[in-house]
Design goal:
The protein is of the alpha/beta class. 48% of the residues lie in helices and 13% in strands. Strand 1, helix 2 and strand 2 form a beta-alpha-beta unit. The two termini are 38 Å apart.
Length: 452
């Protein structure tokens, strides 16, 4: 019965020691992980919403390609059809619309008007084509007083057309500006119902190449292209070589100087960095090939768009894709990138505490024994004062009580050596007291080794 009681006391004391040792450690670890989680980036969403104008700059074709590429990496790209670049910018600026990214034509709007929109880079040149009827002209100023299709009200084409017409003083009456859709504008130009049409489209666009071959329809060549690029930095000068559309028919029949804005990928400044890098990788995959006006590897590029370049885009164009995304699948790279921060508490907290816990437990177990050394020291001090026999007998009795109390201390077997060391020290003091009682001379150096 006494044995069972001792075992229960032993287990209770051991549990108490473990709790008193581990509780502060657990609190420190929990605090470290809580602070770390505050800085861990959230997981990227699995769905993105892209605003795209189908009839502007060939964006519809590339939107489908982006969907396919992102789907291979587990990201769903939803398309929001709009009327043009201006609509796309308004959707991005409106938090209620939940649009994440958009294709936008450069020069559509100044980035100063909404700092929440950032650029992920330019994707390609989308030249401005001005087709017209009548006598040859060499600049936009020659369109003054004509019926001109400049595109729908919210399109980037209209924004660019109005900029150039206004710069030449050709945007006022008697000039008539018509907000026609692309297909309707081309139809009316072919039928001779309008005098000119502004179109923004890639040089590879079939409607552009077909319209260039229509008898009586001319393609304007900008003789002052250099001046326009100085005034409007988002425009680039290009030369469309003679016959590039059709060698046999020699279309166009002479070199044509074009002005070209760029197709750009813009996003909210809250776009998750992992998705920003994935979108730029997609752009590199889809837009790096050569074209009639683009050189291989020229795009994507950090060109002037009217919006500030995002920090992720700046790093991407300087050093490429993040290291992990180069060698791991997107989901794995993102997981590792998020969880590496957890190494901080593991290294800075868990490793030192893992070493400290056994030491703390040892200190706590040994402290139960060490506090009894104070009684031994007290007895030895009294021995130095040459006590009489009754005092010596009392000291022997107190020493026996100390030994009984210490023997009741529950000590794990791995720490039992501390108990036996203490009992040896008790025997040393007992022998000194016994010699005093018998009158035998005390051995030289017979002192209890005190624990510091």
């Amino acid at each position: 019965m006494q044995k069972d009681k001792f075992r229960e006391q032993f287990r209770r004391a051991l549990r108490r020691d473990l709790w008193l040792t581990l509780a502060p450690v657990a609190l420190i670890i929990a605090t470290a992980f809580a602070v770390t989680f505050y800085f861990v980036k959230p997981a990227p969403p699995k769905t993105l919403v892209l605003a795209v104008a189908p009839d502007e700059g060939g964006f519809r074709y590339f939107a489908k390609r982006y969907q396919e590429f992102l789907a291979r990496h587990g990201v769903t790209l939803e398309l929001r059809t709009t009327k043009g670049s201006l609509s796309n910018i308004e959707l991005l600026a409106d938090d209620q619309e939940k649009v994440d990214v958009a294709f936008v034509q450069s020069g559509s709007l100044s980035g100063d008007k909404d700092t929440r929109i950032v650029s992920l880079g330019s994707l390609s040149y989308v030249p401005l084509w001005i087709f017209y009827r009548g006598e040859p002209i060499d600049d936009v100023i020659g369109l003054r007083g004509r019926r001109i299709a400049v595109g729908p009200a919210e399109s980037g084409t209209r924004a660019l057309a109005l900029t150039l017409l206004k710069a030449n003083g050709a945007d006022k009456a008697p000039t008539e500006l018509l907000p026609l859709e692309r297909d309707e504008a081309i139809k009316q130009l072919k039928e001779g119902r309008i005098d000119a049409v502004f179109l923004v489209a890639p040089a590879e666009s079939p409607p552009i190449q077909k319209l260039a071959a229509v008898p009586g329809v001319r393609l304007l060549s900008f003789t002052r292209a250099d001046a326009y690029t100085r005034r409007f930095p988002y425009l680039t000068k290009h030369v469309l070589p003679r016959g590039v559309f059709d060698f046999a028919a020699d279309i166009p029949e002479h070199d044509v100087v074009l002005l070209s804005p760029t197709a750009n990928l813009v996003a909210r400044d809250t776009l998750h960095p992992a998705l920003a890098y994935l979108l730029m990788r997609t752009a590199s995959e889809l837009h790096s090939s050569s074209g009639l006006l683009d050189r291989a590897g020229e795009f994507p590029a950090p060109l002037e768009t009217g919006f500030p370049l995002s920090s992720e885009a700046r790093r991407y164009y300087q050093t490429g894709a993040p290291f992990l995304q180069r060698y791991l699948p997107f989901w794995a790279a993102n997981l590792v990138d998020r969880l590496w921060v957890m190494l901080v508490p593991i290294i800075a907290v868990l490793v030192p505490l893992g070493r400290a816990v056994p030491a703390l437990l040892l200190w706590r177990v040994r402290s139960r024994i060490f506090r009894w050394y104070a009684r031994l020291k007290e007895l030895e001090i009294q021995l130095e004062e040459n006590p009489d026999r009754p005092m010596l007998e009392d000291m022997m009795k107190r020493l026996d009580e100390t030994e009984r109390e210490v023997n009741r201390i529950p000590i794990p077997l791995s720490y039992a050596e501390n108990l036996y060391f203490f009992r040896e020290h008790i025997d040393i003091v007992r022998r000194r007291i016994a010699r005093r009682l018998t009158g035998a001379p005390e051995l030289e150096g017979a002192r209890t080794p005190m624990v510091s």
